[in-house]
Amino acid sequence: MAVEAGDYILWENMDFASVRTVFDAGPLPEVFEIVRIPEGLRWSEMAERLIEENPAFEWEDLEAAYVSLVREASYLPDEAPVRSLEGMLFPATYDINADDLADEHGFLLRLSDEFDRRFARLLQDPGLHPDIVELGLAPYDVIIVASLIEEEALVSEDRAKIARVIYNRLAEGWRLDVDATACYAAAKSCADLTSADITRDSPWNTRVVTGLPPTPISAPGEASLEAALQPADGDWMFYVRTDEGGVRGAHRFSVTYEEHLENVQVCRERGYC
């Protein structure tokens, strides 16, 4: 049996027939580019990142591939008011072989399939928390919540608590008041947000409207998806950054508005509000 030179994937205790099948298929394609997509990017930011990391990609072709894949999105409801893949392209590190450097559609399909695979697994285990079912939320709503968590949580330990605050506010009919949604509505970095942006009338701005925004606002990672599916138990209605416990980026959570005002004062004293 002639074996072509190159890289192959074998594993322990393979039988001869399986080894032969691998060798007959030929070596793995040469990896030409490594593309790293961090959590929390909007689609516009992700597209810019892809072009930076793989100059063979073209903006127009990425947009065309994106629009095409929206029609195949597994978790986008038919009745969704906005047709978008936002939040459903999984952030991770991907390799691109030499033959696929200019295949924008194929690459975005990989990101979409990877999201579907991971989210489907999480829907099975740990599954939907009973409180989410009681609120009547669909899997797509959970993805939206996960995107909010991705933008709000600065430390992993806060993710499930922030999820609980979001669900508690939805249950009470309160505005979510998530600043990151105002940033998304204004198409700005949160560092550049103005007071006018915070009051901007937009279905994405939860500082103005009640309920969830119509789409995710970023690409959530697996930790945020899991937190959205399984929020922590608690009655919290508020949170604010205080670097709680000396942990940089950690939030302090509260049940009452009076407690929250005290925590906001701590936030101001520490220069975060």
Structure description:
The protein is mainly α and 273 residues long. It folds into 2 domains: 16-122, no CATH class; 127-269, no CATH class. Helices cover 44% and strands 7% of the residues. It contains 11 helices and 4 strands; from the N terminus they run αβααβαααααααββα. It has helices at 16-25, 43-53, 59-70, 104-124, 130-134, 139-152, 159-172, 179-186, 195-198, 222-229, 257-269; strands spanning 31-36, 93-97, 238-241, 251-254. The protein has a two-stranded antiparallel sheet with strand order 1-2. α4 packs parallel to α10, α6 (139-152) crosses α7 (159-172) and α6 crosses α10 (222-229).
Give me the oligomer status: single chain
Uncertain runs: none
Instruction: Figure out the total of helices.
Output: 11
Computed structural class: mainly alpha
Query: What is the topology, as strand order, of the major beta sheet?
Result: 1-2
Count of domain modules: 2
